[in-house]
Amino acid sequence: MTPLLAQAGLTQGVTVALVLSAALFTIGLIGFLVRRNMILMFLCTELMLQAASIAFIAFGRMREDTGGQTFVIFILTVAAAEAALALGLVVLLYRRRETLSAEAWQELHE
Amino acid sequence: MSPTPTFMNAPLMPWYIAAAIGAAGLLMVLRPGRAAMRRAGAVIGLAGFGLLLAESLKLAGPADQSISTPFMMAFAAVGVIGAVRVVTHPRPVFAAIYFILTVLAAAATFLVLDAEFLAFALIIVYAGAILITYLFVLMLAHQSPEDEIGHIGAEDYDRVPREPFVAVLLGFFLLASLGSAIERGPELARENAAAATARLAERKAEAAKSMPRLTVALPEGSNPSDAVSNVQMVGLDLVAKYPASLELAGVVLLMAMFGAVVLARRQIELGEDERRKAAGMGGMVLDVPEHERGGA
Questions:
Q1: N or C: at which end does chain B have fewer Cβ atoms within 10 angstroms?
Q2: In total, how many domains does chain A have?
Q3: pTM value?
């Protein structure tokens, strides 16, 4: 019986890239939940975007399609836009409370 | 016929176990406390990741000719170590620098996966631009506290994680469900294997058709076999296949720029106004030239 992933046409190199992608995404998610510094929370979302890019490139390589690489360019665009806006907001919030802790804004539901 | 996907599927059991080991290691690293405990956690977590890789490789097909598996594994290890440090490092500036390490590892995997253009774009845009912005903001917004003998410490909110156990549990479930996606993969692949093969052939024909157009621009005497480089392929794909998305990306960037400008501008005005009020000078009048403002 052929191994599970081999049936889907995954070679070893692509498999390693996908496992790396899964691990990075998971670590990014954990980091987003665990970190209390607002800037680092956004950095963890960048980690998740990074993981998605690796998966795109790996699947694109597997299917011999450049669409995966093209999409990563769009991911870069979104990441840059997100960084600019998020950091602007964080600086704004920091000037109000003089702390980067996300818990300083816990009462935001009021 | 489709085998019912079950959580306790035999070939995936090792994957779940490896994910659990990795999660336990990460949890130990996350807990602030004794350094020995954290170091042991790092070893356990890395072992879990290695096991995850080994188990997946067992399920994978043959080694690819052009993708070097050892290199990929080395870069994957570096990337994961960097990512774990991003999540666990008590000092934010170092966390950002470790993120650059992860970006470099990802760029290296891109190189191995034949995506040269993206590899360098990633280094230039991510490590060069985005991360430097993060570092600037981190350094601007915040100075690490110093204790009385001048040792630089870390803020409490950087040192103590929020709900590490719940977060790691959630991460474990995410990884486990990714495992069950692997399980369903071949089934889906078999279902549309024929369609995929047809599409692949179609795409190759398309690429062959677009090649002559590209070779026109090539210099005399160049080898036709390297006529279409990775950069050309990506560029052609971007402009010919996704022109609308390209325009949208431009709009997204423009809007982000507007947003950043508006956010920054409002803040400066507010600060000035408040400072003037505190000094008993009343509200600031905008658009008054500097020399007329003096006696207000």
A1: N
A2: 1
A3: 0.80
